[in-house]
Design a protein that fits this description.
Layout: E1 11-13, E2 19-22, H1 32-105, H2 109-117, H3 119-122, E3 127-132, H4 137-151, E4 156-161, E5 170-173, E6 178-181, H5 183-201
Parallel strand pairs: 3-4
Antiparallel strand pairs: 1-2, 3-5, 5-6
Helix pairs in contact: 1-5
Length: 214
């Protein structure tokens, strides 16, 4: 059975037959001022509800954008890391090309620099043996006199051709010690060091957006 509901009377009378209570009747007519007031209130209520709906939609959109950004950041980090690797490799290739051109233009420069750096070590050695690539022996021997004179070395200097050496590579043997230079081996070491540094850095380089370290 449905629950019984108490019936209420719109008009109640007292013991003398007078009206004790009468419920107000719904208003059926309004003045122009009342209509305008109702219109303003309805407009304000609608505007408020619309703004709440817009704000809620904006909040949902911003949350979605933030979620998409969080998903994209790892990929952006990978792209940035690949870009660093490409830039480093390009710089290395440019440096190698410049170094090769400089060695072709001034092939005696590394040997002269080595003799300058080892001047104190070789000054007391009675003999200095220089081994160079086979195609460089005549060139080095031709220009060696000025280089040796510049460092003040008084001993005997012998230039030997060594077919096994790379172009522009050389070794110095001054009895108590030795030194060597190989541009190709140097380039290999630089490339290996750069590759190791990039691998160690991985995806943990500086932040893509400054201030987002945390």
């Amino acid at each position: 059975m449905s629950e019984l509901q108490k019936f209420s009377f719109d008009t109640e009378f007292d013991a003398g037959g007078g009206v004790a209570f009468q419920a107000p009747r719904p208003k059926t007519s309004y003045s122009p001022d009342e209509v305008e007031q109702i219109r303003r209130e309805a407009y304000a209520d609608g505007e408020k509800a619309g703004l709440q709906s817009v704000n809620a939609a904006q909040a949902r959109a911003m949350a979605e954008v933030a979620a998409q950004c969080r998903q994209a950041m790892p990929k952006l980090a990978e792209v940035a890391h690949d870009h660093r690797i490409g830039s480093a490799q390009l710089a290395l290739a440019c440096g190698r090309a410049i170094a090769d051109a400089a060695l072709d233009r001034f092939p005696e420069a590394p040997l002269q620099a080595a003799l300058d750096a080892l001047a104190r070590e070789i000054e007391s050695a009675p003999r200095l043996v220089i081994q160079v690539g086979g195609d460089m022996a005549a060139y080095v021997e031709e220009r060696l006199g000025n280089t040796v004179s510049a460092v003040g070395y008084p001993g005997q200097v012998t230039v030997r051709a060594e077919p096994g050496l790379n172009r522009h590579a050389f070794t110095l043997d001054f009895g108590d010690g030795a030194a060597a230079f190989d541009p190709e081996a140097a380039q290999t070491r630089v490339a290996a060091a750069l590759e190791a540094a990039l691998a160690a850095e991985g995806l943990h380089a500086e932040p893509l957006i400054p201030g987002t370290e945390g």
